[in-house]
Design the sequence.
């Protein structure tokens, strides 16, 4: 089997237009895949310089393979099984500031650089006041960016055309705005001139984004078969589902300069991310969270089993289409398409997704993902949605910590687990449910005061205990 590098593969040379902070599975299976597609379709012509930020050295595997790797698209699309391998050639190089800080800063002098993409985890975009000296390698990601930006500002003498477009992928709200605020804080901390701050605000564009794709990563269980099929020894192959979605809140010029939507990719440039975030949280995340306790109590242990089960699968579809979608203020056709995509994603035969792993911190998840749909349905229809009520009841029973004598390995705040343990010691199901629903710190309001809800939840909980 051939090694994978640029002596065994012929590749195009393209200008380095993208600086990518992070080299994890998600960016390789999401962003790098999309750039490769855009290059192939002729709507973009650029390569990526990766900056590794969460390790002391640049990834030796990336260096050995000359930054080449395959993205394995595996799953269901439009009812058909997909199992394809795409070679990614658009990553031109990788560096690590911890190994050579000067070489990292010198990247700022590249006149072709235009975009900065990142995925440094949810805690990556934070201001660290201990990063006081930009002449040394800063600890935080925003400080590393601030140091690079300042050198670029100096090198190009404040040329407004040399600003960057930031498209962060971290899973926090207002990710672009938060990154901008952190860089501004470093400008103040380091006493950089006001002219730099003006350039930061006027020459650079910070986009808020929403990303969605499941990228399980290296397929260790099937890598031998895959390598035999692609004909290369690839130690960086990354598996991703067919579904992908990228919403970018940006001015018109970003869509013109970064036209990934013209490559047949599900990329949307929008003026407001809110409806797309709500859609994802309520349908995708809410669908997961509302299904898990009921499915687990029914003896099911994986998402795919749940979708394929005649009872749980029907429950999930009806929850989404009959009780969640009617509460959302977006075009019905868009919502239904997204929901069908979600159900297809849940049924992916290549992903083994344990329900118990999704159940982590289910109380806070239910509050954010499911409770708004339940309350909005009641507000619109003057009646409680029966399946979401059943879901709430299943959650409370699930948090009792055992089903049919079997221990449930719950993972949540110890205080929450202790509260449920004590609540379920009360003499009746009605008393236990009333106590739990009245704990407004868990739900954001006293649910026991919602007319008729406690009685309905108690009835469903009792039925679950007797099933």
Sequence:
């Amino acid at each position: 089997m051939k090694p994978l590098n640029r002596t065994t593969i012929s590749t195009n040379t393209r200008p380095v237009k993208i600086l990518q902070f992070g080299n994890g599975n998600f960016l390789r299976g999401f962003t790098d895949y999309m750039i490769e597609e855009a290059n192939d379709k002729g709507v973009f012509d650029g390569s990526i310089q990766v900056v590794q930020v969460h390790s002391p050295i640049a990834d030796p595997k990336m260096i050995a393979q000359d930054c080449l790797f395959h993205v394995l698209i595996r799953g269901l699309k439009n009812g058909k099984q997909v199992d394809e391998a795409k070679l990614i050639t658009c990553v031109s190089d990788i560096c690590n500031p911890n190994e050579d800080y000067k070489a990292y800063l010198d990247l700022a002098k590249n006149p072709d650089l235009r975009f900065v993409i990142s995925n440094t985890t949810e805690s990556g975009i934070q201001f660290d006041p201990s990063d006081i000296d930009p002449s040394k390698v800063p600890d935080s990601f925003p400080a590393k960016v601030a140091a690079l930006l300042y050198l670029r500002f100096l090198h190009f003498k404040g040329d407004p055309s040399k600003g960057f477009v930031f498209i962060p992928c971290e899973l926090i709200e207002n990710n672009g705005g938060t990154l901008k605020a952190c860089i501004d804080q470093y400008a103040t901390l380091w006493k950089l001139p006001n002219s730099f701050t003006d350039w930061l605000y006027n020459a650079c564009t910070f986009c808020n984004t929403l990303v969605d794709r499941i990228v399980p990563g290296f397929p260790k269980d099937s890598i031998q078969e895959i390598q035999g099929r692609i004909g290369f020894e690839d130690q960086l192959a990354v598996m991703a589902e067919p579904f992908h979605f990228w919403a970018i809140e940006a001015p018109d010029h970003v869509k013109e300069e970064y036209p990934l939507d013209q490559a047949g990719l599900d990329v949307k440039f929008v003026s407001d991310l809110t409806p797309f975030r709500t859609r994802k949280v309520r349908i995708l995340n809410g669908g997961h969270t509302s299904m898990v306790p009921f499915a687990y109590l029914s003896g099911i242990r994986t998402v795919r089993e749940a979708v394929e089960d005649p009872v749980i699968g029907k429950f999930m579809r009806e929850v989404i289409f009959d009780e969640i979608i009617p509460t959302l203020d977006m075009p019905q056709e868009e919502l239904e398409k997204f929901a069908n995509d979600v159900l297809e994603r849940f049924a992916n035969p290549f992903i083994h997704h344990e329900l118990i792993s999704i159940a982590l911190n289910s109380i806070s998840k239910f509050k954010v993902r499911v409770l708004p749909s339940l309350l909005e349905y009641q507000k619109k229809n003057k009646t409680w949605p029966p399946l979401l009520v059943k879901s709430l009841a299943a959650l409370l029973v699930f948090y009792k910590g055992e089903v049919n004598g079997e221990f449930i390995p719950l993972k949540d705040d110890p205080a929450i687990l202790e509260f449920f343990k004590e609540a379920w010691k009360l003499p009746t199901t009605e008393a236990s449910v009333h106590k739990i629903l009245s704990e407004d710190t868990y739900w954001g309001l006293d649910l026991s005061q919602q007319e008729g809800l406690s009685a309905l939840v108690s009835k469903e909980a009792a039925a679950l205990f007797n099933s």
Q: What stands out?
A: The chain has a mean pLDDT of 97. The first strand starts at residue 2 and ends at 3.
